[in-house]
Amino acid sequence: MTILTTQTAVVLSLACLLAANVPAEVSAAPAVAGSDSSKLHAYSVCKKPLIRKEWRNLKKSEQKSYLNAVLCLAKKPTIAKRSAPGAISRYDDFVGVHAKQTPEIHFVGYFLHWHRYFVHAYEKALREECGYKGAQPYWDYTYDVTKGGNMTSWPLFDKTYGFGGNGPYVPYVSFIPGRTGGGCVQDGPFTYPQFSLSLGPAPLPIRFDVPPPTETISTSATPILTTTTTTSTSPVPTTPTLPKMTDFFPPTNLTISNPHCLKRDFAPQYLSDQVNISNYRLVLSQKDFASFAFLLEGGPFVDPSIGTLHGGGHFGVGGSLGGMSDPFLSPSDPVFYMHHTNLDRVWWKWQKAGKKGERYRDVAGPIVPFDYQNTVKGNVTLDYVTHLEELGKGAKVRDLMDTKGGFLCYDYEEL
Ligand SMILES: *[C@@H]1O[C@H](CO)[C@@H](O)[C@H](O)[C@H]1NC(C)=O
Ligand SMILES: *[C@@H]1O[C@H](CO)[C@@H](O)[C@H](O)[C@H]1NC(C)=O
Ligand SMILES: *[C@@H]1O[C@H](CO)[C@@H](O)[C@H](O)[C@H]1NC(C)=O
Ligand SMILES: *[C@@H]1O[C@H](CO)[C@@H](O)[C@H](O)[C@H]1NC(C)=O
Predict the structure, then answer these.
(1) Domain locations in the chain?
(2) What is the pTM assigned to this prediction?
(3) Which GO molecular function, any one, fits this protein according to its record (predicted)?
(4) pLDDT for 62 beyond 50
């Protein structure tokens, strides 16, 4: 066990896309927001699942139609004014809803479930509102990281059949080693003003500068939590010192419309230290959901010598100044969905590897962000309800366990 210095703790906490704000009151089944969200999803039979493929396995015409559908979403008017009054486009709606819920949906037991639902809603919008015929693709970075080379030469970042490349280098002192960009994306479909984001960006001078509380972390995969105790003789209540989102990042004001460009800040070395094949195998070798999800997501309680797939994808592409590295606004970069679909695939692969379907029922992890030791509340269960504000009604965790059950109907080409 190591007591971290404040500085190291900042690094580690951010290295997992820290997003934690302990809500004053979190009920086991939180009130479901949204116009029709008092209703839950009904079960349906999944006969013809959409098959999600790796980006490089799509035909060129399929790549083009996907990219065009994303651009189409960015031209359609918002429907999420209640959650994000500053949103202009349907694309912004997804950024806004993620930003609004960021304090509750990370470092909790339903992190993967929420993002599974979120990507599904995005895939549905692309198909139903923008005429996209295919499934949401994913990015398996282990191919690229193993092969190496310049990130801008990887298929995903192709300027014609991909998401375009890096931004020009902007000097900035940061905890991400070897960042190479930071400015507006220069080529490909997502340049400004063709692709315009309305929400954010977060005020940079404040980002990363505020020291977090000192944390104790474990060198094993088991989370250890520091607690502060008083030295009174009466029975002492133990107060958990859970990290909070606002310890590191200023909240983004979602009422402001501020059309701006997408930025990227590639950090190739960081990416390959986090998402390489050994870290990927380590995650998949976990025996229970709690350990699997904990390692996959990363965070200040995870041994810093272990890379995290989640943090790696975000900070490897977003560095410090890019859209992908902002815990609230990370869906600003369309690559967000390629990354999170891949995490969903890794989870599905892990789920399918279980004996007798036991992993389709395995869920654990805290209700309250970072509360891995249940000092504040218990674990998420199959009956826990989550929702997507205007983008999706209430869904039970149990209905987000099976990609071909509940209301979901998709599978992956390669596992
Ligand atoms: C990667 O490619 C880009 C675009 O061609 C170039 O600007 C950059 O210098 C290259 N990076 C390295 C490390 O070679
Ligand atoms: C957000 O911005 C709006 C519009 O400028 C302002 O009225 C409001 O006070 C801001 N909210 C916060 C929390 O700063
Ligand atoms: C993956 O990265 C870790 C550091 O996070 C390193 O220890 C390990 O050797 C790397 N594995 C490969 C195959 O590059
Ligand atoms: C929460 O889940 C963890 C991991 O499975 C488990 O060790 C712990 O006992 C659970 N807590 C409660 C209160 O059930």
Answers:
(1) 2-18+52-372
(2) 0.87
(3) oxidoreductase activity
(4) yes
Q: Which residues line ligand 2 (CB under 6 A)?
A: 253, 255-256
CA of 135 to the centre of ligand 3 (A): 32
Residue 261 Cα, ligand 1 centroid: separation in angstroms? 21
At 9 the pLDDT is: 35
Q: Is 404 helix (H, G, I), strand (E, B) or coil?
A: coil
CATH class of 2-18+52-372: mainly alpha
Rounded average pLDDT over 238-257: 77
Phi, psi for residue 74 in degrees, rounded to 5 = -75, -5
Nearest-CA residue for ligand 2 atom 14 is 253
Is 154 a pocket residue for ligand 1 (Cβ < 6 Å)? no
Closest ligand to 166 CA?
1
Query: What angle is formed at CA 170 by the lines to CA 71 and CA 261, rounded to 5 degrees?
Result: 20
* DSSP states of 268-322: HHHHHHHSSHHHHHHHHT-SSHHHHHHHHH--TTS-TTS--HHHHHHHHHHTTTS
Q: Positive or negative, the Cα torsion across 81, 98, 317, 403?
A: negative
